[in-house]
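Q: I'm building a small set of examples for a reading group on sequence design. Run inverse folding on the following structure and report the sequence directly after it, with nothing in between.
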């Protein structure tokens, strides 16, 4: 039986009509930019739908329209263009609480979780397509996976205060830590690293200047409403007749730590081989950051700069560094001992005499009281057992009502001594990798960036003892980014050295 392979005339006409229609739409939308009868008709129809929807549904329709026209393309761009997503994540992590105070309702924290999840999804798809898994190997990657795995199996902890608390807490541990792999895989050029630094420091400059506004001009109406919405807020933020400033962040502690980290980062950059005007700009930024951090009244942040300078002097020892460190030490000794009536400076001075501080004594007492519970539970009481989630979901006992006031103490209570050992091993691995890479890296510019990132990570580890420095936005995102940058900068330097060696070989 003979088969007819030629298509029927009707099918040919239908295909030609579809092709002509497609060309017409393409011409109307992309070449003539809707400046034609089809485009005008489309815009009239779109305007009529908006008008009808607004009349019938009001704000709900407007919100849905914004979500469709802006949200969906943005979500696609985050998956398809992960570098764009990384910048969006950094900006959103800084602006999260500020947007909330402007009156934008909704689960903004979930929005950041969604961005991180989309970035992880896009990275996994790219990894599967390119089979480039070697990029993610290394001691830091291994320890992060062990840490995430240990947190995941905590759902089965027989001593868990609450399973529901685990659900709310695991996302801030697993998703944020998995972002490390997103950064390591998608940040592939020094140009993009510099762009990230500029965006980060730009957000911090805005936050610092906003703190100056709060200090010398006052709070906004929304901020005033927040401060007086709960007596506990006033008890924490109104000290000695002076309001502690929080800028665009959730609280004064988060503000102080982030701004101080930026100051430490800029101090390290000043030591690099940059043109004079850039060093003057960096020096001005350091002053703005450190002065604005005083407005927060967070004493734990005040010790981070001297501690960071000690590491700086050890890793980058030379005559100029020694002179700069000595000058900085004299300056800090003067600030600590000078007589003053300024409430911000007085609180700064008390940071260097903790044994005379009643709140520090109370923290030591509480930590001593919880020690028997930690030692008797090797794997702890489960994620979310203490702090806010413990208070909300717990049984009201000693553990669930305990306020850790320290990242290390929280880990010890929730994950036990075993979890604390894993966490400290992770931090040690990160620091060792960063220091090793600093000495291995040959390019002066990349070496300077590596030193700055190591100093920030070191300062965060110190800050995590008096406060919970690594669990709040944007610190958790920034810390994962900094861990990734240690690996990224080493890889970029290696690629640069190999390229230069290949060029020399070609010339010879």
């Amino acid at each position: 039986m003979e088969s007819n392979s030629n298509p029927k005339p009707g099918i040919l006409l239908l295909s030609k009509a579809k092709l002509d229609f497609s060309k017409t739409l393409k011409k109307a939308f992309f070449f003539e930019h809707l400046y034609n009868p089809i485009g005008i008709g489309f815009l009239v129809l779109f305007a009529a739908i908006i008008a009808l929807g607004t009349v019938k549904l009001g704000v709900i329709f407007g919100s849905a329209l914004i979500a469709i026209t802006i949200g969906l393309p943005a979500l696609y761009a985050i998956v398809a263009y992960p570098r764009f997503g990384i910048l969006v994540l950094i900006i959103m992590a800084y602006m999260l609480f500020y947007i909330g105070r402007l009156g934008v309702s909704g689960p903004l924290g979930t929005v950041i979780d969604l961005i991180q999840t989309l970035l992880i999804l896009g990275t996994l798809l790219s990894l599967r397509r390119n089979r480039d898994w070697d990029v993610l190997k290394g001691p830091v990657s291994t320890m992060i996976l062990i840490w995430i795995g240990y947190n995941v199996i905590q759902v089965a902890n027989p001593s868990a205060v609450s399973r529901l608390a685990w659900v709310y807490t695991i996302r801030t541990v697993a998703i944020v830590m998995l972002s490390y792999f997103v950064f390591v895989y998608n940040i592939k050029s020094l140009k993009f690293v510099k762009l990230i630094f500029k965006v980060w420091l730009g957000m911090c400059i805005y936050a610092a200047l906003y703190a100056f506004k709060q200090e010398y001009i006052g709070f906004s109406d929304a901020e005033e409403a927040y401060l007086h919405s709960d007596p506990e807020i006033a008890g924490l933020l109104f000290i000695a007749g002076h309001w502690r400033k929080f800028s665009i962040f959730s609280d004064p502690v988060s503000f102080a730590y982030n701004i101080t980290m930026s100051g430490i980062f800029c101090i390290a950059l000043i030591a690099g081989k940059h043109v004079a005007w850039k060093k003057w700009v960096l020096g001005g930024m350091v002053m703005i950051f450190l002065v604005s951090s005083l407005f927060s009244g967070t004493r734990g942040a005040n010790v981070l700069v001297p501690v960071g300078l000690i590491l700086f002097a050890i890793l980058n020892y030379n005559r100029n560094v020694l002179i700069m460190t000595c000058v900085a030490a004299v300056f800090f000794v003067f600030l600590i001992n000078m007589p003053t009536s300024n409430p911000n400076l007085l609180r700064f001075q008390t940071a260097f005499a903790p044994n005379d501080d009643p709140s520090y004594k109370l923290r030591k007492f509480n930590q001593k009281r919880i020690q028997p519970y930690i030692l008797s539970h090797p794997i702890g009481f489960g994620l979310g057992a203490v702090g806010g989630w413990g208070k909300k979901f717990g049984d009201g006992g000693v553990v669930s009502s305990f306020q850790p006031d320290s990242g290390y103490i929280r880990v010890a209570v929730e994950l036990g001594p075993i979890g604390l050992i894993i966490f400290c091993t992770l931090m040690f691995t990160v620091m060792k990798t960063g220091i090793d890479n600093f000495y291995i890296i040959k390019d002066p510019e990349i070496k300077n960036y590596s030193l700055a990132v190591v100093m920030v990570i070191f300062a965060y580890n110190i800050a995590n003892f008096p406060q919970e420095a690594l669990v709040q936005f944007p610190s958790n995102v920034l810390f994962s980014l900094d861990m990734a940058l240690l690996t990224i900068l080493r890889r970029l330097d290696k690629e640069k050295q190999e390229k230069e060696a290949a060029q020399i070989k070609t010339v010879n």
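The CA atoms of residues 274 and 445 lie 9 Å apart.
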